[in-house]
Amino acid sequence: MTKPLLIAAAVVCGISLQANAATFAYISSPGDGLISQYRLDQSNGALSLIEQVSAGDQVNPMAITPDGKVLFAALRVKPFQVLGYRIDPKSGHLAPLSKAPLAESMAYLSTDRKGHYLLGASYGADTVSVQAIDKAYQPSANILTYKTGPHAHSLRTDPSNRFAYAGNLGADQVLQYRLDAKTGALTPIGRGYISVPSNTGPRHLAFSPNGKYLYVVGEMSGTVTAFSINDSTGALTQISVANGIPERLKLAHGEVRDARNNDLKDDPTPRIWAADLRISPDGKLLLMTERTSSSVSAFAVDPSTGHLSFLENYPVEEKQPRNIAFSPNGRWLLVTGEKSEKVGTYAVSDKGALKRVGEAASGKGALWIEVLQTSVE
């Protein structure tokens, strides 16, 4: 085949693959117990609501298996349980598949990088958990639990799948563990944690694509802290901190919240209340949500050193934005607002600037977002 024909064939192949690929977003809304399925057009950011599945009261954190075949969703009412849904690769439709108990009410859910274990973090019970997932995608009823300091808020494994880290908000610690691939057991690395300044409130986590760095958002400080990951031991070393709250927002330092004072109704002071943290697919941009000001802060990431620098803070239309998610191509950002009736799509510039380009109706109190790109053969 001549060179021009090779190029033409490659272009046709690329167009065909793009035409057969679909991008779906799944968003939970605990206020009405729904999981809403959306289709995202990665060419223009258009968002379309496809269907809504009734999962159950207070459906909240979710996780998609690494192979993209199953979505797990946790219910935060007794009896605490996780529901599994099979994802149709063509339509993205969710079909009930499995059900299993959870150790506690989970504020966070994830799987390890191989899809062998379901990981959870319970804010109210100060606990992280691990349970095996069998080949039929059934989570085990035998659950490993580990007590933490006050308010565990996340648990994720690193890209190598050898280590696991947890944001421990009330203790101002980032917990560090080694993951046993055969049993799922978590073993503390060193003393088991690395501390951050008082009243930081470590919450959600993000890893650099190369697995060398971990980023942690402080709910009460509005900062993002960067850590290097020791490749052999998994131990963390702090390397950088960046503040994502410009003075013009006029926000006081945040406070620890729980079910009794989540909205701080008796405190009229506008306070920092950061939530989610996401890294772009190319690893060069970090975005953080801040709920009180309904805004998103952008940070530049140096992929070679892991260091952070604050870029700018941008308002969003979604009130009290909880979770965000990048599209697989990194061009679009999905934003949910706990007090918004819409889910928004924003175009993302190289510097993190946001421009709203689409929207779709959301469920009540929409928050958790999982995005999946399928390739239909």
Automatic annotation (TrEMBL):
Top-level taxonomic group: Bacteria
Coiled-coil intervals: none
Cross-referenced Pfam families: Lactonase
Protein name according to UniProt: Lactonase family protein
Keywords of the record: Carbohydrate metabolism, Glucose metabolism, Signal
Family that this chain belongs to: Belongs to the cycloisomerase 2 family.
Signal peptide: 1-21
